[in-house]
């Protein structure tokens, strides 16, 4: 894929800034990999989700709240997810959650977003292995339960692993886009 015309839209919702910080790290990593400013970042609190239709490659970031709930900005925009036309678009997801405090709902919002976006015609990339996490249940797993449907971050308990996970995932996305 030619990076000269590459444009990636990264859309996230963030309450406590952790998802925002992860989005900024992903943006910086991808811009470094491509040696160009290829990522445009949007907080869905301030930007309509329909803007996602302007990009061929998309990254969506979401955190799971309380007992498997959506982050508040995503909850406010949830019906808009189903209205998106992402036919022929490539989508990667990342999620934040607390695997120990909410082990029965770890990355549930990630799975809910994946399921909702599955109705929009997009193609997914960026599955992430579930090794290295301890949790009881998750809606964010693939059908065979071997991977998360996107990058899984736990800045509450594994903050020291997030930077490397982001780097590895961004390089994985590059390989999958090639």
UniProtKB/TrEMBL annotation:
Q: Which residues form the signal peptide?
A: none
> Which Gene3D superfamilies does this entry report, sorted A to Z?
3.40.50.360
Domain Flavodoxin-like, first and last residues per copy: 8-174
Alphabetized PROSITE patterns for the sequence: FLAVODOXIN, FLAVODOXIN_LIKE
The terms under GO molecular function for this entry are: electron transfer activity; FMN binding
Coiled coil location: none
Task: Cite the SUPFAM superfamilies for this sequence.
Answer: Flavoproteins (SSF52218)
Family annotation (InterPro entries): Flavodoxin, Flavodoxin/NO_synth, Flavodoxin_CS, Flavodoxin_lc, Flavoprotein-like_sf
Q: Which cofactor does it need?
A: FMN
Going by the UniProt record, its keywords in alphabetical order are: Electron transport, Flavoprotein, FMN, Transport
Pfam family of the protein (one)? Flavodoxin_1
The family assignment reads: Belongs to the flavodoxin family.
Role: Low-potential electron donor to a number of redox enzymes.
Name listed for the protein in its UniProt record? Flavodoxin
